[in-house]
Design a protein that fits this description.
- This protein has about 210 residues and is of the alpha+beta class.
- The protein has six helices and eleven strands.
- The strands form four sheets. A four-stranded mixed beta sheet has the order 5-7-8-11. A three-stranded antiparallel beta sheet has the order 6-10-9.
- A hairpin with a 4-residue loop joins strand 7 and strand 8.
- The protein is globular and about 55 Å long.
- It starts with a helix and ends with a helix.
């Protein structure tokens, strides 16, 4: 998909609008809820369905907690991550508020999925990247566990375990070298795009 030029152009054109709609749907009082990450993930799963066929795109088994989607015939499950803003920090490897689970994850983690990463930077340029498991494993080996994983500080309320900024940067740089990064212009501000978050639900109520 990332080497298909027509798909790359379609993603550059359509993804900003779709993510913009996701934010509009989940905005309350000018603030976007954390659920936007889940809705963005669904948009990217729908992209995979469009490209490979809905019958080939499956939910992962329950014993694959790092995976978000499986493509039939593909060599590895896929994890989907999205973040807003510049920089390389703040990308979760796992969400948890349990310190015991944080420690267990840190001890046992190794890259086990391919990764699709969307970095949204409204009014600037971000990207959509595909990072195969082999790139992540090479980075993990080069940095070691301590430098690859960023854990929350003891005594704080954990919100999960993150990629270190260095690990995230190295993964994306290597993916870019292999043509697996699509730069996306997120400048949608000032465009008059009508959107009514209730319209589809009204339409469903109106149907016989």
């Amino acid at each position: 998909m990332f080497h298909d030029q027509s798909m790359r152009e379609r993603i550059k054109k359509k993804l900003p609008y779709m993510f913009w709609v996701a934010e509009k749907e989940l905005s309350r009082g000018g603030h976007v809820g954390m659920e936007v990450g889940t809705l963005r993930e669904k948009i990217l799963v729908a992209l995979l369905m469009y490209k490979f066929g809905a019958d080939k795109v499956k939910e992962p088994p329950i014993n694959s907690p790092q995976a978000d989607v499986i493509i039939e015939g593909h060599c590895a499950p896929i994890s989907i991550k999205t973040k807003t803003g510049r920089g390389h920090s703040g990308v979760k490897l796992v969400w948890t508020v349990d310190w015991q689970k944080v420690e267990e994850f840190y001890r046992t983690y190794e890259p086990s999925t391919d990764l699709i990463m969307a970095v949204v930077d409204w009014s600037r340029t971000g990207f959509l990247a595909y990072v195969p498991q082999i790139i992540q494993r090479d980075t993990f080996k080069a940095l070691g566990r301590e430098r690859y994983i960023h854990c929350p500080k003891r005594g704080t309320n954990p919100r999960g375990v993150e990629f270190s900024s260095e690990a995230f940067r190295m993964n994306i740089e290597q993916a870019r070298k292999e043509g697996l990064v699509i730069d996306i212009d997120w400048k949608i501000e000032g465009v008059d795009i009508p959107y009514n978050p209730y319209a589809r639900w009204v339409e469903l109520w109106e149907r016989d």
